[in-house]
Design a protein that fits this description.
This protein is mainly alpha-helical and 160 residues long. Helix content is 44%, strand content 4%. The longest helix has 25 residues.
């Protein structure tokens, strides 16, 4: 085998610039990735939550989401609007990428523990959020919602 034939080495026996770059980014950065994942989970929960939490309101204290068939329809207003959700998520990604340029954030950790903890945290948080959505009967997505098509003979709007 001649000099420079091994993968990642230049002609002079030193690692090439490309190999050094991929070795550098091939390190951990698990803490940065974990923090970004937790931040995105927090944003997602705020995106799914209503602006006014029905569990904190009493029936006497103003508007609430309808819980019966004959109650008035109130639109779902998010706690975190969609544009702010995407804007904050993009800012978080940019900040996480900037953090990878500094070795102080490359803390050696056992990554499977972080992955298992994140999966467990995600499942528990989403289970609580879905139970809240079912209890107060709000659906933050347009799929599966009732659509109103027109009026009947008496002038009242009816649903399909």
């Amino acid at each position: 085998m001649s000099e420079g034939d091994s993968v990642g080495e230049s002609i002079h026996g030193k690692p090439s610039v490309v190999a050094a770059f991929f070795t550098r980014i091939g390190q951990g950065w698990y803490i940065v990735t974990y923090a970004l994942g937790i931040y995105h989970l927090n944003l997602f929960i705020a995106f799914l939550s209503p602006k006014v939490d029905p569990s904190l309101l009493d029936e006497d204290e103003g508007p609430s989401l309808p819980t019966k068939q004959n109650e008035e329809f109130r639109p779902f207003i998010r706690r975190l609007p969609e544009f702010k959700f995407w804007h904050s998520a993009t800012k978080g990604i940019v900040i996480a990428m900037i953090c990878t340029f500094f070795d102080a954030f490359n803390v050696p950790v056992f990554w499977p523990i972080l992955v298992m903890y994140f999966i467990m945290l995600f499942c528990i948080t989403m289970k609580r959020q879905i139970k809240h959505m079912i209890k107060y009967r709000y659906l933050p997505f347009t799929h599966g919602k009732r659509t109103y098509k027109g009026k009947d003979d008496t002038g009242k709007t009816f649903a399909s």
